[in-house]
Specification:
Layout (H helix, E strand, L loop, with lengths): L5 E3 L2 E3 L6 E2 L3 E3 L4 H13 L4 E3 L15 E3 L7 E5 L4 E5 L4 H10 L2 E2 L11 H6 L16 E7 L5 E5 L4 H7 L8 E8 L1 E2 L2 E10 H6 L1 H7 L2 E6 L5 E10 L8 H25 L4 H8 L6 E5 L1 H5 L7 E9 L3 H14 L8 E6 L14 E9 L5 H13 L3 E2 L9 H7 L3 H11 L8 H7 L2
Parallel strand pairs: 4-6, 5-6
Antiparallel strand pairs: 1-2, 2-3, 7-8, 8-12, 9-13, 10-11, 10-12, 14-16, 14-17, 15-16, 15-19, 18-20, 18-21, 19-20
Helix pairs in contact: 10-11, 12-14
Length: about 450
């Protein structure tokens, strides 16, 4: 996901091309005081206000026809507290910039998602996650945050200060206020050894519990129309550091995984009948490899081929059945799916509207190449996911509403009651929040 959202002639478009918005005005605050002033001005003018980062959400969670806050000047590290093991960072800081800055300081986040183009506030507010047996989402590593609320006041939140707001605002969907700064837990930088190798899907599903239990980070990609997967196991290592050779890395991560894959998807979009054959070739294109490097260089990867995505979180014990049902659906349908299905896990956490709130979780993400019809595939997949009490990723395509979500989130009413208290006039409203949270 190299490039981000675009703004042209007053029109904002997200990275995936699924959302178009025309805000009444755009504000780029350079301080929390300017951000608070922008919120107060919006209230005086009777306009809704939304913050938007790099536009990597496929839903309209950040769209507005009111005041659009662009936090690109709210960047950088405010403070590093080595004794407490924390770093405080401005909300508009891209994860990539944070990761590289932490590495220079000999520090690292414990876990992260698989891309790092997002801003820290955008990533956490939508529940961005990676994969982990013991370590959870990016938001679960938050130890404090600063929130500009609907009346323009600045609220500090942590387990000790405004703990009810802290419990919810770590994944706040932009519904409780605008995050201006985040304090993350960090640790001394460490090494991960990645072991990537092809594996038959039947074996992965048969041994899933063992693969999950034996590895700190386990994920796999299943290629529809085949019985093949690529697996990735990441575990802490004493070293030495052995990064991927630059030439090999370019060949596999840029040329094959992005360049050739993009061309293959162009062919599949033009001639859908070729997709199964392309999937068989793609699933065998990458060979096994092992390398050791610092966390962000192992856990993240470049994503330059544009796509649309739906992802659901199901109870971890339901993963195998859910994926088998998804495969059976694809096999018996006329669908032609050129993108692999990504499977990851996360432990239960205590964040009110986290997709892993209160339960050990497995994530299943389905993708389609941008510009190809995706609705039939996503609708059929969503039917399977919801039958297993799936929770949709807040930033990825879904059709769920407040009625459904209130049934799969035990603390849903707690969140909406807090929203009523912090934003009774719905200053941070938009159509997406109206659907998923109610009026």
């Amino acid at each position: 996901m190299g490039s981000t959202a675009s703004t042209k002639n007053g029109t904002w478009r997200n990275w995936g091309g699924t959302v178009l918005a025309r805000p009444a005005r755009e504000v780029t605050p350079a301080s929390v005081e300017e951000l608070a002033s922008a919120v107060r001005s919006a209230a005086e003018d009777g306009l809704p206000v939304k913050a938007v980062g790099t536009g990597h959400s496929f839903t309209s969670i950040a769209a507005t026809d009111g005041v659009q806050i662009r936090p690109r000047l709210l960047t950088g590290i405010r403070d590093i507290d080595r004794a407490a093991g924390t770093v405080t960072v401005e909300a508009g800081t891209p994860l990539k910039r944070l990761n590289t800055a932490l590495a220079r300081e000999g520090l690292s986040l414990t876990n992260m998602g698989d891309i790092m183009e997002q801003t820290v506030a955008g990533a956490t507010s939508t529940g961005t996650h990676g994969t982990g047996r013991d370590s959870a989402s990016v938001a679960a590593q938050i130890r404090g945050l600063e929130l500009v609320t609907a009346d323009g006041s600045v609220l500090a939140c942590s387990e000790k200060e405004n703990p009810d707001v802290f419990a919810a605002a770590r994944i706040g969907l932009g519904a409780l206020g605008i995050v201006s700064a985040i304090t993350f837990a960090v640790e001394p930088v460490f090494l991960l050894t990645a072991r990537e190798e092809p594996m038959p899907l039947d074996r992965v599903l048969a041994e899933f519990d063992e693969l999950h239990a034996e590895n700190e980070h386990f994920e796999f990609y299943w290629f529809p129309h085949t019985g093949n997967t690529n697996t990735k196991r990441n575990n802490r290592s004493a070293g030495p550091e052995r990064p991927v050779h630059p030439v090999k890395g370019w060949l596999e991560d840029e040329f094959l995984s992005n360049g050739v894959f993009q061309a293959a998807n162009w062919v599949g979009r033009a001639v859908p009948a070729t997709v199964p054959a392309i999937a068989r070739i793609s699933s065998r294109a990458l060979s096994a490899r092992t390398y050791t490097d610092i966390p962000y260089k192992v856990l993240t990867s470049p994503r330059r081929v544009r796509f649309v995505e739906m992802e659901y979180a199901v109870p971890r014990e339901a993963l195998v059945d859910t994926l088998r049902e998804l495969k059976a659906m694809v096999d018996r349908s006329p669908l032609r799916v050129s993108f692999p299905v990504e499977v990851r896990t996360a432990p239960a956490d205590d964040i009110t509207l986290s997709t892993a709130s209160g339960r050990d979780t497995a994530y299943i993400a389905v993708h389609m190449f941008r510009g190809t019809p995706y609705q039939g595939y996503f609708t059929a997949a969503e039917r399977i996911f919801t039958a297993h009490e799936g929770r949709p990723h807040w930033g990825k395509i879904n059709t769920r509403d407040a009625d459904y979500l209130s049934r799969v989130y035990p603390r849903f009413a707690e969140f909406t009651a807090l929203r009523d208290r912090l934003d009774p006039e719905r200053r941070f409203r938009n159509d997406y929040l109206r659907r998923v949270l109610g009026s």
